[in-house]
Design brief:
Blueprint: H1 2-16, H2 20-54, H3 61-72, H4 89-100, H5 104-130, H6 132-143, H7 146-151, H8 157-172, H9 177-194, H10 199-211, H11 216-240, H12 242-255, H13 263-269, H14 271-286, H15 294-308, H16 324-336, H17 341-355, H18 378-392, E1 398-401, H19 404-409, E2 413-414, E3 425-426, H20 431-436, E4 440-441, H21 442-450, E5 456-458
Parallel strand pairs: 1-2, 1-5, 3-4
Length: 477
């Protein structure tokens, strides 16, 4: 026994003694790690800088900023104004906008920070589990789809991606089970509270977490803790206005006039992620990964989330980008366990270079015209409109526009019912119902225009989205 103990001590001493070569390897790894994270940061900043300063107003972006402003002033989503997503983001982003200002630039920078943290946390997670090679691949796959990085600067994507990433990391962590359940319930519920469409992925992980419980009592405890946290977040908004809550979270999305998107558009938005999925899925079988292993669970959750986006009529190709970090974290771990991972690495490195060869790879996307998004004249036009409003209207005047951001930056208010911008006007219901749901009915809009009730009217001159009424041609102007 003494002899064995001495042998153990000798082995321990050998493990903690660093030779010059070992020290060199350690230094080399640190330099490589620093280079990877520095390169990632520079790439994100470059893409984000271009997006923030050169992309015209994203169609949803304006009403998200308006929702945040109204939430911070004490109004409640659904009850007091129309809001077509789950209710949490206006409060989280609104907290920061209240500090830095309710402007388009501030909103994009805040969302970019959430997106950057999602990438950073994903890479750190993979680094700790599989090392520098896997960390690099994780960052490369995400960054080689620049549209994914850019989309994180808009609307709910940055924050939701961050919460999805943290939820996935907590799920895979080695924390004590009870602590893991609580943290998973908080971050998973917040993610659903930002965008209801991520629920399928969260539900998959929740089911795996329940199965991880030691006994029936622990499993049931996990089941009810998640439900309790989710109800704590969403129930107050439902109680405030049940009818409006159900409409804006469910009814609105199944009655929208935008057509269902095709798979190729989802693929073109983030090709490297889909290539990774197509490689990781068969490799999981080849490597005989357990169905309940964390990396397989992440992969299944991401797949369920992506394909669930084809169900709603209003599915749009960027919706599948909410599951990218989960897919990449799970996929990278599986690929890094493969004996011939160098060949997989070569495929993932080369493919995006092919994808990026066209001058505008997203020109394949025909709805809406992607080229319209990249318009560096938008900022000048926006600033000109804001100056016009400040000069020619008073702070008490109401404005009629489908660009709520113009009213916000000019410190003016808009007619009630126009908070949703492009999506605010409808003729698919009677005026009483429209008013109750905080829409602007088309007849009411015509009345405001005809009788000059608005001190200023700012609309598009072309019907970029022909099914919407907020442009001059629809109003016969």
């Amino acid at each position: 026994m003494k002899h064995n103990r001495n042998n153990k001590q000798i082995k321990k001493s050998k493990q903690i003694t660093f030779s010059p070569e070992a020290g060199g390897n350690l230094m080399r790894d640190r330099l490589i790690g620093i280079s990877i994270f520095t390169g990632m940061t520079i790439a994100v900043l470059f893409i984000a800088y271009y997006t923030i300063n050169n992309v015209t107003l994203y169609i949803d972006e304006s009403y998200y900023i308006m929702a945040a402003k109204k939430a911070m002033s004490g109004e409640i989503p659904y009850r007091d104004f129309g809001y077509a997503q789950a209710p949490i983001m206006p409060y989280i982003n609104g907290f920061f906008l209240n500090i830095f200002g309710f402007t388009q630039q501030a909103s994009r920078v805040i969302n970019m920070c959430w997106g950057y943290l999602a990438i950073l946390f994903s890479m750190i997670f993979v680094l700790k589990r599989r090392g520098l090679w896997a960390c690099f691949i994780c960052g490369w796959v995400l960054l080689s789809s620049p549209l994914w990085v850019g989309v994180n600067c808009f609307s709910t994507y940055g924050l939701t991606n961050f919460l999805m990433t943290v939820t996935g990391i907590v799920f895979c962590s080695s924390l004590k089970y009870d602590k893991k359940v609580i943290l998973f319930s908080i971050f998973g519920s917040l993610a659903i509270g930002c965008r209801l469409t991520v629920a399928p992925a969260i539900m998959i992980l929740w089911a795996f977490l329940i199965l991880e419980g030691n006994d029936y009592r622990q499993k049931m405890k996990t089941f009810f803790i998640f439900i309790a946290v989710e109800l704590t977040i969403l129930l107050p908004f439902f109680i405030a206005s049940p009818y409006n809550f159900i409409h804006w979270n469910v009814g609105y999305h199944i009655s929208t006039t935008i057509h269902r998107r095709i798979f190729s558009e989802h693929f073109l938005g983030q090709p490297s992620v889909f290539i990774m999925l197509s490689l990781a899925i068969p490799l999981a079988f080849i490597l005989k990964k357990k169905f309940t292993s964390p990396e397989v669970a992440l992969l299944l959750a991401a797949i369920a989330g992506i394909f669930s986006q084809f169900i709603p009529q209003s599915s749009y190709f960027i919706y599948s980008m909410l599951f990218s970090t989960m897919a990449v974290m799970g996929g990278t771990i599986i690929l890094s366990d493969f004996k011939y991972k160098k060949y997989i690495c070569a495929i993932l490195l080369i493919f995006p270079l092919i994808y990026l060869t066209p001058s505008n790879p997203h020109s394949y996307l025909t709805y809406p015209p992607i080229n319209a998004y990249f318009d560096n004249k938008w900022n000048d036009t926006r600033n000109e409109a804001v100056k016009f409003l400040k000069k020619n209207t008073s702070s008490d005047d109401l404005l009629l526009t489908h660009y709520p951001i113009l009213a916000i930056e000019a410190d003016r208010d808009i007619f009630h019912g126009m908070e949703m911008g492009w999506f605010a006007v409808t003729d698919e219901m009677d005026q009483t119902t429209a008013k109750k749901l905080n829409y602007m009915h088309y007849n009411e809009l015509i009345k405001i225009v005809r009788y000059s009730e608005a001190k200023a009217i700012i609309l598009r001159t072309d019907p970029a989205y022909p099914n919407f009424f907020c442009h001059a041609q629809a109003l016969h102007l």
